[in-house]
Amino acid sequence: MSNTYSIGTPGQPWGKEEKSQWLNTVSIKRSYQDEVVTKIEALKNRFDIEQYGALSYNVARYPQFGICSLNIDASKPTILITGGVHGYETSGVHGALKFLDTEAQNYTEYFNLVVAPCVSPWGYETINRWNPQAVDPNRSFYKNSPSEEAKNVMEWVKGLGLNIFTHIDLHETTDTDESEFRPALAARDGKEYEEDIVPDGFYLVGDTDMPNTEFQTAIINEVRKVTHIAPADDQGNIIGEPLEQEGVINYPTKKLGLCSGFTNCQYGTTTEVYPDSPKVTDDECNDAQVAAVRGALNYLLSIR
């Protein structure tokens, strides 16, 4: 299939001019302050809240916050939860905040909870996968990262001085992945866009090098109480990858620079909610993210 994206020349990677053209198409569509920061501030009496960074695009507008359970104890396992690495993936942000508000204190006796609910606030406001430099933060979790979003959260987590036992990264797969973001990616990189199918339902992305099959199963079984699990396509794949088990595919997370791979955790997963399904509501999408965290933590408690 030909690359027919509106910016760039087919077969040629973007330069500064094309990236500038792309940025000029982007606009603010919602308020990070009103929709996210106010919810973070409402947690201040129950958690430690720290501003760990701010994006240089607009320091005052885009502070980045980390939230930790009170009385961190290095003898407890530490659970890292990240949301909004792709800012447009709304339930990742609000699912993380809903977990903190409604269920987190059921687990603080057993775990240190460390949460970055909205890693990419500019992406949240502009409903975008990339940052203003047309860089995907979720392919940028490595040393000398080109993404401020990724770099800042990595430095914050490292500075806590805690060994991350489990990392749960909350994401979505949306219809705009196929209608906008993947075609834009192909154009940016001078490649042909190959159309795929957006899975209708929830799925997980585990780590090829450490699949933790039973851990992923426990999450899927908890989430299926809230929403439907994505079926495989006619080739037995989800987004081009073969199923490891129902609702689970695996990626080499470190090699790809994915957020879920940067901590050397023992248990890691990336959730993928499908908010465009006619079968779900926004609340159910948030609840699916909460269920994923709950399923992960209950599994970890069961194997102590």
From TrEMBL:
One of the GO biological process terms: proteolysis
InterPro entries: Peptidase_M14 (IPR000834)
GO MF assignments: hydrolase activity, acting on ester bonds; metallocarboxypeptidase activity; zinc ion binding
Domain Peptidase M14: 28-304
Statement: the UniProt record of this protein carries the keyword Hydrolase: yes
Domain of life (superkingdom): Bacteria
UniProtKB keywords: Carboxypeptidase, Hydrolase, Protease
Keyword DNA repair annotated: no
Alphabetical list of Gene3D superfamilies matching this protein: Zn peptidases
Short name of one Pfam family: Peptidase_M14
Family from the record: Belongs to the peptidase M14 family.
Protein's name according to its UniProt entry: Zinc carboxypeptidase
Annotated source species: Grimontia marina
